[in-house]
Amino acid sequence: MDCQNCKIIKNIKNFTKIDYTIALVGNPNVGKSTLFNFLTGMNVKVGNWPGKTVTKIEGFFEFKVNQEKFVFKIIDLPGVYSIFSFTPEEEITRNFLFLGSYNIAIIILDATNLEKSLVLAFQVFEVTNKVILALNLVDEAKRKGIIIDVEKLQEKLKVPIIPIIAQTGYNVDNLIYKALSIIKGEIKVNPNKYTPPPELEKIIQDIQKEITEYYPEIKNHPFLRWIILRILEGDKIIIEMIKNKNLKTVEEKIKNKPILPIL
Amino acid sequence: MNFQEILEKVEKYRIQYNNTLKDKIIEGMHQQIDEILQDTIEYKQSNDILTKIENYIDYFITSRIGGIFVLISLLSLILWITITGANYISEFLSNIFASIEVFLRNSSNLLRIPPTISSFLIDGIYKSLSMVVSVMLPPMAIFFPLFTFLEDLGLLPRIALNMDKLFKMVGAHGNQALTMMVGFGCNAAGVISTRIIKSPKERLIAIITNNFMPCNGRWPLLIMISTLFLAPLISESLNPFLGSLIAALALVASVIIGLFFTLIVSLGISKSLKSIPSFYILEIPPYRKPNLLRIIYTSIIDRTVFVLMRAIYMAIPAGAFVWFLNYFNLSTPIINFLTPFGKMFGLDGVIILSYIIALPANELVIPSLLMLYTNAKNFIDIEEFKSIYQILSTYGNWDWKIALSVMLFSILHNPCTTTILTIYKETKSIKWTAIATLLPLSIAFTVLFILNNLILKHL
């Protein structure tokens, strides 16, 4: 399944349209920016996320498979440990993954610290099915005596995992190739979702019933359970969205929030 | 059921679970991940010698005493190398600039350029420019690559981890240590880097106290003072290596003074603002093989050249300004007016005026001082420009007491206008910007007043 005739072309300048958008997600220091730089070369657009002091980095690259060419836009989301939305970074990452437009999210896992990476990955699985996992730092992990059964892990998570070394670009072409197959629908991904403990499950069911009665249109929302969990946690933004029966309107409001609210 | 009732129901569940509903949800997730990892990951005893060495080093550095020892000795070492090396380059550069000056004067005589104009161009602009370059470039060209090397090595985050407890004690964030290290380069950059601190209160503390870390605009002055005035106090010996070691230690002491005031101010702000302490993870990245090309690039291009260009842009108008002050005999009345005020704090009128001129950039303090002392309008023979030491000690009557006062003032005084603007941009609050500006200034004056009137007077 390795891609023989794949080629990543960096530093592209003249392109007329963007075919697909990739969102890059991961903990801080897992090589997110390294992968980003490997893919885009120096062709980077740096700005701020609207209303935030958090840097927004975008870049472009071209991917050639046999005779076909695809232009990718890649968005480097802020490095976070969770998407519970405690911090501006988490809020941005979460809102983008939940509501933003992209074709696939590449979640970068740190092979030397898999548990922490998976905590984030699991949270991302809850807000989107458009995911692929990149297992970075496999060389480092091997050196430290950490042995990961990628096949088995893939089976359990139900998401394709591609081992890469972002520093050298090892296997990155296969990562993009696989991502492309998922985007095109050739591979269906349905990640293993979080199953809460039974006592929690009852509460979730109860609140879910009430919410769908209040806001019936949300009934078929693919990530309804995630929304219910956030309401249980007291997530103000999500609560506001449901109250207004509109998942987008709050976006506009939070854009203009002051940077240091307590002052 | 309306929405309010749903929320009340949620609230009831939350109370039923003692407000641990959120923890329960996260706990469940961790359990699930642990189960998955149990039979997909295997930890073997690594036989890799590097991994073992890393573990030992980490054990030492992250221990309390070991960490502080490593921090202080590394800082001393870097500063010592910087001072020793900078002396040679500085001398080399001054010689070149002096010969260019001779050339410029000769050619302006040949071309019959009116003396006023040639004095403006040479004494005003060229001199301030050459002073900025010859005083600032050498320490930066050595300090920044060394500092970037440590950064690249992954040592700095470990030091931050070590400082974590100290900062927590005063209600600040462990990451503040990192933002302070960025402040070593430039306080404006340090203020921006506080974005890594998520909770507003701790971030505010880091913003306000960043100024207590000397930025590179202040390093040259501090290095100059400790080399010329403080090192000879202890060792009159001519051994330049010993002299620069003492100077380096004096610099480390000044950083520790800055740290001391950082902690005190942090404690004060944290006590006066109410907010919940934040939860955070401080992470240690792996040791990396430093990439020499990248170190050279980031330290030379990103830092040294960037900072030097900024200093040069600022030095030209400032040099012109001082020249005008001197030419129209304005500097003397202003200095005389400021002198009694300066004397109260162990400084003098020239120092106060230099700091006013240097508001846009701390880099301007040295050229302003030298130009105001020598009063560039009265042509001074190049031969007399033998050394900065002579200018300061003969024209300015500097002794170690004045030098020490200037050093303390340099560490504690208000941030430069670039930093002030950055603070405003980051806090969006005039009140806190004003506090961040005036608090250090009043601390500086208070410390100097006490030091000079209670201690130095009696020595």
Number of domains of chain B: 1
Structure classification of chain A: alpha/beta
Q: Might you state the CATH topology name of the largest domain in chain A?
A: Rossmann fold
Strand percentage of chain B, roughly?
under 5%
| Share of helical residues of chain B | over 70%
* Biggest interface, CB < 8 A: A-B, 54 and 53 residues
Number of extended strands of chain A: 9
The beta-strand count of chain B equals 1
What is the helix tally of chain B?
Answer: 19
Structural class determined from secondary elements of chain B: mainly alpha
The stretches of 5 or more residues of chain B where confidence is low (pLDDT under 50) are 377-386
Mean pLDDT metric of chain B: 81
Q: Which parts of chain A are unreliable, with pLDDT below 50 for 5 consecutive residues or more?
A: 250-263
| Rounded mean pLDDT score of chain A | 83
Any overview of this molecule?
The complex is a heterodimer of chains A (263) and B (459). Chain A is an alpha/beta fold. Chain A has two domains: 6-184, Rossmann fold, CATH 3.40.50; 198-255. Chain A has helices at residues 32-40, 88-99, 114-127, 138-143, 150-157, 172-184, 198-214, 224-233, 236-243, 249-255, and strands at residues 6-9, 20-26, 44-48, 55-65, 68-76, 104-110, 131-136, 146-148, 161-163. In chain A, strands 1, 2, 3, 4, 5, 6, 7 and 9 form an eight-stranded mixed β-sheet that branches. The longest helix of chain A has 17 residues, at 198-214. Chain A is globular and about 50 Å long. By secondary structure, chain B is mostly helical. Chain B has one domain (65-458). Helices cover 76% and strands 1% of the residues of chain B. Chain B has 19 helices and one strand. Chain B has helices spanning 3-16, 21-38, 49-61, 64-110, 115-153, 155-169, 176-185, 187-193, 200-209, 219-234, 240-272, 292-327, 331-344, 349-357, 365-374, 388-395, 400-412, 417-427, 430-455, and one strand spanning 41-43. The longest helix of chain B has 47 residues, at 64-110. Chain B is globular. Residues 377-386 of chain B have low confidence and may be disordered. Classes of the chains: A alpha/beta (263), B mainly alpha (459). At the A-B interface, α3, β8, α5, α7 and α8 of A face α1, α2, β1 and α9 of B. β8 of chain A pairs antiparallel with β1 of chain B, so a sheet runs across the interface.
